């Protein structure tokens, strides 16, 4: 069986620092001070955890941190990773922009509208990213390019390659009357005499 874990013997400055931590308004500092002073009184981590309503591992982490850093362990550190690597460098951002200027149908998708999730999926499939990234990563990459992402609108599109030609090549008798047609066009459509 492993021997119980306690903090090392406290010096007068460390004792004063921990007691000052008991008066702190920061919950993290207060909790760490309580844990370390209880451990100094030779209470076991399991008992300290039960008394303070925290996990035993939290008590052990506080003791280890005190052994490494001393009283400096009372300051809460950021939980953010020390090194963050951007998924999109400038070249990949430009490739993302070029991808989004094409239809998703080119990449085998059934929709003609880009969404952030769809862009993340296509970036992974095309090898722009090593793993599937979040929609926030895509949005941030677009912001670095100066592109604002708004909710996509569903425009009428068709997979037919001649769709635009057919759409614009409507015969005059089938299109709606416009202001330049005048009243004669309306009368002809209604069966009246012009």
Short note summarizing the structure:
The chain contains nine helices and no strands.
Topology:
Layout: H1 12-21, H2 27-40, H3 45-52, H4 56-69, H5 90-100, H6 116-125, H7 135-144, H8 163-168, H9 182-190
**Global mean pLDDT:** 81
Individual helix count: 9
Taking all Cα atoms into account, the compactness measure Rg is 34 Å
- Please give the domain count: 3
Helix content: 40-55%
> What is the succession of H and E elements?
HHHHHHHHH
Q: Characterize the largest beta sheet: strand count, sense, and whether it forms a barrel.
A: none
Q: End-to-end span in angstroms?
A: 107 Å
Unreliable segments (pLDDT under 50, ≥5 consecutive)? none
How many distinct beta strands? 0
Strand percent estimate: under 5%
From the helix content, strand content and strand pairing, which structural class follows? mainly alpha
| Overall 3D shape | rod-shaped
Description:
This is Winged helix-turn helix domain-containing protein. The protein has nine helices and no strands. The protein is mostly helical and 194 residues long. The chain folds into three domains: 12-74, no CATH class; 90-144; 158-194, no CATH class. The chain starts with 11 loop residues before the first helix and ends with a helix.
Highlighted features:
single chain, 194 residues, mainly alpha, 3 domains, 9 helices, 47% helix, 0% strand, rod-shaped, Winged helix-turn helix domain-containing protein, Homeodomain-like_sf
